[in-house]
Specification:
The protein is α/β, with parallel strands linked by helices. 41% of the residues are buried.
């Protein structure tokens, strides 16, 4: 009689057990069989769970020749399943695989379900939900044990969203977390403590291609379980990025690998020792080799698999700002101030001959030597380096020799510079960064690593995702780097919807846009002066295209001067760190995140921070954007950033901004979902006075803005088909307490467009007069007729009417305005000029009088249809106006 078998790898852990009992629900006729030993925690769990042990068949009771189907869980390699390895290789045996870390020597199988999740259990929970299977509480608890063990209670970096979903599903099925806690947090035995001490004492560090890998080894005469647990403890105790543990127990060598960095893929490394796993966690069991032999092999294996961390080319900045040897000290100072540099390479006929620092240039100017040539005071004792120079050698040059800047040359051509800041940033991250953003000149941008292609696919509509892929492919064909930048990237990481896509080209943006136009159905609008373009698709979707550029300001508050630059310098010119990230779109790096300025940390901290101390001085409009982002994202201004903002306001830099720029920033604030908090924040930072000295914020202001929000919401629910500009309603609220002359001063200061100025001045003045009439009539219990309300409010824009709704002090006034908006504003007469002519009336100015009277009759209920209107005309006008 044939049989089906569910099995897993030797030294089974809780994920193996959880996956096996899960597979049993999919293959109820199969026998569950361990191929060999189990981890100690698992054995103890079995000892306390006799109901579970009874469901397993011992391997010695299995006739291997009778096996017709083999279901493998948490493993996909023949050499890790003990005696079942030979069975799996038989052509007549049907093999099914469920695993979360594929191996290079994966078995051939008819059913393969391999997903990059934190635990194999997560694969089965997804299948259960698709098939409508709900495990009982005991099975759910066993599966939860496996999930929590393999994901470190959902804390390991290999944990995915699917693992959280799996935990939620199992919890809903009755998984007992107390049982999970009891068996995953057990005390170490005396043998384990001794083994851990031996691992600690033996630990050494091997540096391979710039990466530090800790290697620890130990020996024991008998098998000691939970080597993986000990490895985790050692990694956490010493805060290690990469750890290989090798332990001889009896006649076998057991290996465990753990990694936090992408340069060290322990799954690939342990494949060479007959083991497997994934990039962050792996294990292997080796026979027929000694501990010494294994330790001797490790350096060669690492040399083949460790990815190089960083060379000078990965840290260097380019294109390089330099100065000619014959230029003046004053010119050097201007260049360094303009581009915010601390040193410049000095060139003679294109060759680097020295460097000049800001400190030396400033001292020379102090001694009135600013017209002397750079050659007089430059540092000639420089060492140019190759792009391939190692970080250790570079560190010696900058730290050991005190160089502020090191030129990077190919031949005699200057291709980049590495600054002290570049090196310190790399060292501060502990080398936990990766190489990203290969450029047309062969250099790489050095950033904190994160790969977001899966997040892009999950967050974006398929049309947008595919569009980004196509942009990258066009960049590949043109040989240029393409990036998505700005708020689109920020909101992607915040899991907020933002389809306002900005693309930056490390090259020329307009030729790229023209190429897009040739291969896609779209049209392109270009702005040659700025080197930018807008791609407009048939459905109206737009994408902004720009070239990477840097900016400098001739004076505070002025518009910037723009020059082409690298992606790093392009991001450096942005307003706040959270907006400085870029996503690579080229095929080889699609979804790779560039983060030069710790934007991810500030997102995590919920902080708005500027990139340098003169940010608000160079562009004071950033004070408004800082407040807008702070309130929209529910973040806080960094302490230093807030101090810089207050200083810029106190020193009057905001008043130097062109009025229309301030006006546009106000519009952005009032277009936010809830601008009240931003206006209140502007008041606390003394910004309202920069708009007009008479502007204040108090309880009445807060109440008015809240009423405006309610009025706008009410109007939206009317579905009139006429849009109301909410920002204009809020602007009217801001100016509500100002006298007409003060409003005129405000409009002059902000250079408000004429059409809006007319509303703020003339319409507002007339509307406040109407409000006064309405209030007086209601106070005298004289309810206005419908026709009177119509005459009062019809001349005004919809924004003025909604503002009055908010500004009214009594419920009766609001009801009157509501009556006008809901029942009166769209009332029309049935008769028109032609109708009057057909009735025998002669056309002329009198027609307006007649039609106004008919409209009033309609509004006041004295005429309800066309016949009523005709009767009224005949009675009142026909005999007077007939020809």
């Amino acid at each position: 009689m044939h049989m089906d078998v569910i099995t897993t790898h030797i030294n089974a852990d809780f994920d193996c057990l959880g996956a096996m009992v899960a597979a049993k629900l999919l293959y109820p006729e199969a026998e569950m069989v361990f191929p060999g030993a189990q981890e100690r925690n698992l054995r103890e769990f079995f000892a306390q769970s006799p109901y579970l042990e009874d469901n397993f068949t011992r391997i010695k009771d299995v006739d291997l020749d009778r096996i017709e189907r083999l279901i493998l869980v948490d493993v996909c390699q023949a050499d890790r399943i003990g005696p079942f390895g030979a069975v799996a290789l038989k052509p007549e045996v049907d093999v099914s695989i469920y695993d979360h870390h594929p191996g290079e020597a994966m078995l051939k199988a008819t059913t393969v379900c391999i997903e990059k999740v934190g635990a194999t259990v997560s694969i089965f929970t997804r299948l259960f939900q698709e098939k409508g299977i709900r495990p009982d509480s005991q099975t759910a608890t066993v599966m939860m044990l496996g999930l929590y063990e393999d994901t470190g209670s959902l804390l390991f970096s290999s944990t995915t969203r699917n693992d959280f979903d799996a935990a939620s599903f199992l919890f809903s099925c009755g998984a007992d977390l107390n049982v999970v806690a009891d068996f995953l947090t057990q005390e170490l035995t005396a043998e384990q403590v001794a083994l851990l001490h031996e691992l600690i004492d033996s630990r050494s560090v091997l540096t391979v291609k710039g990466v530090d890998i800790s290697i620890a080894h130990a020996s024991a005469e008998n098998f000691i379980g939970d080597l993986a647990v000990l490895s985790h403890k050692l990694k956490d105790m010493e805060n290690l990025n990469a750890l290989l543990v090798v332990a001889r127990m009896g006649d076998r060598i057991f290996m465990v690998g753990r990694s936090r960095i992408p340069e060290v893929d322990v799954g690939e490394i342990f494949n060479e020792f007959g083991g497997g796993g994934h990039a962050f966690a792996a294990s292997a069991t080796v026979r027929h080799e000694t501990l010494v032999q294994i330790l001797d092999r490790i350096p060669d294996v690492l040399a083949r698999h460790i990815k190089p961390v960083c060379e000078a080319r990965h840290l260097m900045s380019f294109p390089v700002k330099s100065i000619e040897i014959g230029a003046s000290i004053q010119k050097a100072r201007e260049t360094m101030n303009r581009y915010n540099l601390n040193a410049l390479p000095v060139l003679q006929e294109g060759r680097v001959v020295g460097t000049i620092s800001r400190q030396i240039a400033d001292k020379a100017a102090h001694h009135k030597l600013d017209q002397a040539t750079v050659s007089e005071y430059m540092n000639r004792e420089i060492e140019s380096i190759s792009p391939a120079l190692s970080i250790d050698s570079l560190k010696e040059l900058i730290v050991g020799h005190g160089h502020r800047i090191v030129p990077v040359v190919e031949g005699e051509t200057l291709v980049g510079v590495v600054t002290r800041t570049d090196l310190l940033r790399y060292l501060a991250t502990g080398g936990q960064s990766s190489l990203r953003g290969k450029t047309k000149k062969g250099g790489d941008a050095f950033t904190r690593q994160q790969h977001l292609s899966r997040l892009l696919q999950a967050q974006l509509p398929p049309k947008i995702f595919n569009l980004l892929k196509e942009f990258g492919q066009i960049g590949d064909r043109l040989g240029i780097r393409v990036y998505a930048v700005g708020g689109f990237v920020r909101d992607l990481l915040l899991r907020q919807t933002n389809l306002d896509v900005d693309i930056v080209i490390e090259g020329e943006g307009i030729p790229f846009a023209r190429q897009v136009e040739q291969v896609m159905e779209c049209r392109v609008r270009t702005h040659e002066r700025f080197g930018t373009a807008i791609i407009v698709f048939p459905d109206g979707f737009k994408v902004d295209i720009a070239s990477t550029r840097t900016e400098y300001y001739l004076e505070p508050g002025a518009l910037p001067k723009v020059e082409h630059s690298s992606i790093k310098l392009d991001l450096y010119r942005r307003d706040f760190t959270i907006n400085t990230m870029a996503l690579a779109l080229n095929n080889d790096q699609f979804g790779d995140l560039l983060d030069f300025f710790q934007a991810q940390k500030d997102l995590s901290d919920g902080a708005i921070r500027v990139l340098h101390n003169l940010s608000f001085v160079e562009d004071p409009t950033r004070v408004f954007r800082a407040i807008r982002f702070e309130q929209r994202l529910n973040f806080s201004l960094g302490r230093h950033t807030e101090a810089l903002l207050k200083s810029a306001v106190r020193m009057g830099f905001v008043e130097k901004i062109g009025g229309i720029r301030v006006y546009n920033e106000l519009l952005h604030i009032f277009n936010e979902a809830d601008p009240v908090a931003s206006v209140k924040r502007m008041a606390t930072l003394d910004l309202l006075g920069c708009l007009h000295p008479a502007l204040v914020w108090d309880e009445d202001s807060s109440h008015l803005f809240e009423e405006a929000r309610r009025a706008l919401h009410w109007y939206e629910l009317l579905y009139t088909g006429t849009a109301c500009r909410g920002w204009l309603v809020y602007l009217l609220c801001l100016l509500a307490t100002l006298r007409p002359a003060q409003v005129a001063e405000f409009c002059q200061r902000l250079n408000v467009p004429p059409r809006i100025r007319l509303i703020l001045l003339e319409e507002r003045r007339a509307a406040l007069t109407v409000k006064l009439k309405l209030d007086q009539a209601l106070q005298q219990n004289n309810t206005p007729r419908n026709s009177q309300l119509y005459r009062w409010f019809k001349p005004f824009s919809i924004e003025i009417v909604v503002f009055l709704m908010a500004f009214c002090s009594t419920e009766e006034s609001r009801q009157s305005i509501s009556r006008y908006m809901t029942h009166l504003c769209n009332v029309k007469t049935s008769l028109n000029g032609r109708s009057l002519q057909k009735l025998g009336l002669k056309s002329g100015p009198n027609f307006k009088t007649i039609l106004d009277l008919l409209l009033a009759a309609r509004l006041d209920g004295r005429a309800t249809n066309e016949q009523d209107e005709i009767s009224l005309v005949k009675k009142r006008f026909l005999k007077h106006f007939q020809s």
